[in-house]
Each structure stands twice: as C-alpha cells, then as structure tokens.
Amino acid sequence: MKTGQSPFVDNAHSRIRKAATPQRVAMLSVHTSPLDQPGTGDAGGLNVYVVELAKRLAAAGTEVEIFTRATARSQPAVVPMADGVLVHNLDAGPRQDVDKADLPGQLCALTAGVLRTEANRPSGWYDAVHSHYWLSGQVGSVASERWNVPLIHSMHTMAKVKNLALADGDRPEPSMRVLGEEQVVSAADQLIANTAAEALDLQQLYGAPARQTSVVYPGVDLEQFSPGDQAEARRLHGIDVNSTVLLFVGRIQPLKGPDVLIRATAALVERSPHLRDDLVTVICGGPSGAGPERLDQLRKLAVELGVADLVRFVPPTTRTSLAQLYRAADVVCVPSHSESFGLVAIEAQACGTPVLAAAVGGLHTAVADGESGLLVPGHDTLRWSEYLERLLTQRRLLTELAAGARPHAQRFSWNSTAAATLEVYRQAAVARAGAPRLSIVSRNSA
Asked: For the chain, which has fewer Cβ within 10 Å, the N-terminal or C-terminal residue?
C-alpha cells in the first residue's frame, strides 16, 4: 500500500477489480424456458437470445446459470445446456404451461427458488444477475439486493410501447405490467436495449437514465443461417421449385401481424391474377396468447378471402429446418405491429433472403431499407400488396436486395453481442461498487 493511502480506498479498488470481471452470472428467464421450441406459446426471439447469449458468454469464460419455471413433471431440476451453461427448472405452481397473465402470482415461489439455489453455494457464487422480461426483473431485483451484485435487465418488449401500437383484436397490456416495468427500470443497475430506438423508449416512456441504458444489438448464428440451394430447400419442405414463395415466421398472435400477410396475399392476386398460379404463402408458427383459436381464425380468414389454396400453415420447426425454410422463400415478411429488434428478419437475411417488414421499432435497424429489404409504412393491406407486387414483378430489384441481405446480416453476431454484454456487466459492477442501488421490494414490506 502506498504511504498515506487509506486501507478503505485500497479495499474499494480491489472490490472493483474483482467485480469488473464476472466469473458467473445468474440469468433469469422465468416466464419461458430457453429449452422450449421458439415459435409457439411464449417462446420466441427472447428464447433464442437467452440461449445464444449464454453459450457465447460461457465460451468467453463467464459461466451462466439460467433460472426458469418447470413446466413438466419429467423435467429434471438441473439441465446442462452447453459447456458452462446450466438451466435450473424451478418449482412454481403446477408443472404445466401457465398463462403468462397468471405468472405474477408465482413470483414469490420463483424468487424463493432462485435464492435457495444460491444459499446452497459458496458465498459470492454469482457476480451479476441478468434478467429478461419484466417478470424476471421482479425476481432479479430481490436476488440482486440479497447478494449485493448488479442487476442488468433486458426488457425485450415493453407494455407502453405495445399499447401505443395495438393490432386489431389485440388487448392492451394491463396496468400491473406497466407498474412492474417501471419498478424494474428503477431497480436495475444497467438496462440493455436492443436498439437506439428501444433505448429512447426506455428513457422517454419509463424515465430510464441515459447513463444506465446501453444499446447492445442481438446477433445471428451466421454459420447455421447462411445462403444455400433454394431448389433443394423447397424440395425438403415439399414446395414446388417453380413457386413464388412468401414466408412469415413467428408466433400466431395479432402483435406479429400474420393476418396482414394473408390479406396482402389476397389483394396481390386480385391486382395481379397471373401471380396466383405460382404463389405460395407460408405461415410458420404456433398459437400464442389466446391459444389455438388464433390459428383457426387465420385459416378462416384465408377461406373468406379466397386464398386458402395459396396459404400453407406449418408448425414451428427446428433451427436447421427453419434455415432451409428461409432459403426456400423469395421474400420473408415481418408485418409486426411492434418489434424490439426482429430476429426473424436478421436470420432470413443471413440466408440471403430479402425481407419486407413493417417500419416499426427495431426493424429499422434489422433491415437496411433499400439494401437488404424494404420497410413498409403502416399495415394497410393495399400498400402491402403494392410492395409485394413491386418485389415479385421487378426481379432485378429482388435480386439486388437478395445480394445485400447477407452482408447486412453479417453486421450482427452473437459473439459481438456477448462481448458488448460483458462490458455492460463490468460497468454495472464498477458502478455498484461505489453506489449500491435498492431493489423494487420495499424494505418495510415484511
């Protein structure tokens, strides 16, 4: 120690140096398991994000333990997902799927499960908590305070943003969620936003301090999602090699807008009847939210619009099969009403397939308008059909966009996401070493 230097200052510096390099992170995804198949129920881009980020963090030397809710009797308490990544299946309510709206009633049990796991470990086992979605943030706040480690939170979607862009037939997010998100924002040491637009929403709608908001782009597996033989991909999915293929991938819910594509398909063939003979519109996804009736409504809509013969519904599929489906398409359509980023758009472009997407939220970042795809203002059926007609009749434009798709996707990688996330962890650890923050749970609530 230097002469005259306070031992308290030296100890503080030691704490900062040690805290700045996280050795082990508790990652919370309590409402949906990283082991679930994306595209149905509550499993979607968030699941992909958690899996890919955890694997890359572990590869970089930071172990990850993911906490989620057990949904089946056959699930073991702990599942190794990859080298350096464990998944804890916590008992909270019945071991079956539970509507997301009912999960706030299980937060106490989920929190107890997380704390119990840590209590059986050596002191200081976790260096940080990274929560995903507001329900996880509620649990993460308690764990962060109990363990005196930073809470890093990723919203993925936000109630106030969704309520500003509701689709027809969709219900607004409840006030309980709005309040819960506000509490999480107040409790977090650092907030991770997928794009600058999401960071601005956090600051303007939730009062998040700019100094505690970091932008980290999600990534794409550029090896798994890569260009390939379109004809072979079509044969693998039972699609005629001479077809013109439009593709939607995502959960079947109003927010994702699959009905927009079906309506646009009907308007397209009405505008250009010669396209009907070869057109195939594929809707790949499973029911979410309201359940199977959403899928039935889409099938009924296709019949009512006279395009049931053109629209093909396929269930969620493996990542390998999904890559082939992207390759099989001429255009991947992302007509979401709200999107924090748009992993489907990036995956499609990584496969060399151009994207037609709604000009909302993170899709402004995920799609390079005029270079790798086109952005459509709004969700008007006629406008969407006009954009589709332009792409399908101006083959030179489609070819140019396809050529720009892969280079744009190559700007995003999960390794880059992990490296940037580790830097956020370090910043949060250094800041907390000097100024601890309170959890959203009142100290006087007991």
From this structure: C
